[in-house]
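Exercise 3.2. Students should predict the tertiary structure of the chain below and write it as structure tokens, then compare their answer with the key that follows.

Predict this chain's 3D structure.
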Amino acid sequence: LRLHGRPGHAAVFMAAHASVFVWEEERIQEEELQRSMNDMKWLEEIKSQTEGNEDLQGKEQPWEMVTDKKHFKLWQHPITGTQLYQYRVFGTYTDVIPRQFFNVQLDTEYRKKWDALVIKLEVIERDVVSGSEVLHWVTHFPYPVYSRDYVYVWRYSVDRENNRMVLVSCAVEHLSVPESPERSCESQMVIHPHKSFDENGFDYLLTYSDNPQTVFPPCVSWMVSSGMPDFLEKLHMATLKAKNMEIKDYISAKPLEMSSEAKASAQPSELKNEGGCSPAQIEYA
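Answer key:
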């Protein structure tokens, strides 16, 4: 299971003998962050589809809603050329502030305390130019899904002008971690406060894809019915508890915010498949 399609993948492989991780090729670019933020517009598109206001004849298979609750909606979409799915979750919380919800996701030390499934989670390397980090994450999953070993690069950004925050993660290879066939995933979390970063209430859109690495088809049902909802509820509860804890404020510590040039150059979601962490670029062995 490999992730292909990021520019310069061959250069990374060739650099292996020099024991160098090539940040120029593997860091998450500002354009990728902006494209993820633009995915909030997807909600309007899917609303148009579900209300029957758009002719879907001749188009790709649409997103299928599989969970519809008051504060939690989940869709799935087949990844072309595979039997796997990409998922999107739209949710709303009104009892926690966006800043804390964002910080809790980024604080790896706190994650080890509130997520009992974590076996190992550590930052391997950090890019001083963009703030991107490479992480090694080993996590346990309930049967029938196997425990997983992930190596991925992530980057976050804050768009104060449009009142949004984004965290993008994408699988990579790193020389400090032994080769594993299981490392392939991608996710984008976009948070849109109802008012400000420091007032209760926000919407979020999580886009996620992964290979569960199991021969049991029911694992897909488990991911939809239990896995993802359970994780998000644990994240919510951890955010509530963090009110009385000292969690690092990543928004204030952010070295670089999204530039106006990146916002202007990034296009809407039709460019999603050009570079970056698109599911269409995942090759499954």
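Discussion points: The first helix runs from residue 9 to 14. The chain has a mean pLDDT of 75.
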